[in-house]
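Try it yourself: sequence plus S-adenosylmethionine, in.
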Amino acid sequence: MAPTLSVLRRTVAVLARTVAVFTGLLDPWVFMSVSLSYLPRVLATLILAPTGGGGPSLARIREAWFGAFWREAAGPGIRARNAERVRALLRGRVHAGRALADGAEGGNAPLAGVVLELGAGAGFWVDVFPEVADCGGGGGEAEPGRPRVERIYGVEPNAAHHPALRAAVARAGLADVYDIVPVGIEALRAPSAAAAALDARAGRLRLPPASVDCIVSLLCLCSIPDPERNIRALYDLLRDGGRWYVYEHVRCEYSWYMRAYQRFVNIFWPHFLGGCQLCRPTATYLRAAGGVTGVDAWSRFDLAQPPEEEWWHTVPHVLGVLTK
Ligand SMILES: C[S@@+](CC[C@H](N)C(=O)[O-])C[C@H]1O[C@@H](n2cnc3c(N)ncnc32)[C@H](O)[C@@H]1O
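Structure, out:
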């Protein structure tokens, strides 16, 4: 009886693992199919909408398509599955790719000061800011023991996301603290404080070097243009001691066959996901961001793949806090 039971248990375990592997490998195709299902409705809306003539441009279709898919399908699920992880991240309570238990050693400093949220999308993470910090630059004492966030710049070039992002900011009570910056991060860096002041007078936000305390990037660096150069430009915006809170999906490093499979999926993926790239070595770009040969750009580089992600994840992540 006992040997039969153990064989049965082992068979169930092997079956469960096989299902998990296949689900993991098929996952990106399911994701792309769901995205595709949004295209007919988005196209119909754009074609029927009154415009100045011509029809919608390809860029406009791509923005509206990805916007609808992210707001209605992908974003809410990703938010629900990662809420605890992102809360821990912004509190600095992560180390070596995992959230730390209360009281555990090895954490990082929490979010504070002037914050840049990259690719804020439809605002799925906006309500986490007041949970992890006292948000508001105005007078009054910060709650004892809580960090204070003075200002948040939510950088989001896709105008299709702006109404939802604005609503999320209002719901979180951050209207006085959170500014939506409707450009790509590549347009953000001013060469100097004087240039930034001139821009501000013209009503345009550009930030001078070393003017930002914290950068938050949640699933965004896969979508930006020229990542190596723009990550370096963002590094310049951080002051010394500033921190970059990262939860990003990255190039698969597991084995030749997973790397080949990820490259194959990536032939199709960007067309269905608003230009998102699966195979970016983002951790390498971040590590090298200082750009000074032989000098480490970071005083602490605490970034790793969450250990619960197994080899079959076609979209592996890195999680952590980098301190300049
Ligand atoms: C995968 S979505 C993630 C959105 C959001 N961070 C979230 O987790 O819900 C990637 C976001 O990056 C934005 N993005 C694309 N290009 C960008 C750029 N050049 N600068 C800043 N954000 C960009 C997209 O518009 C999109 O909202």
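One thing you can check immediately is this: The domain at 2-323 is CATH 3.40.50.150 (Rossmann fold).
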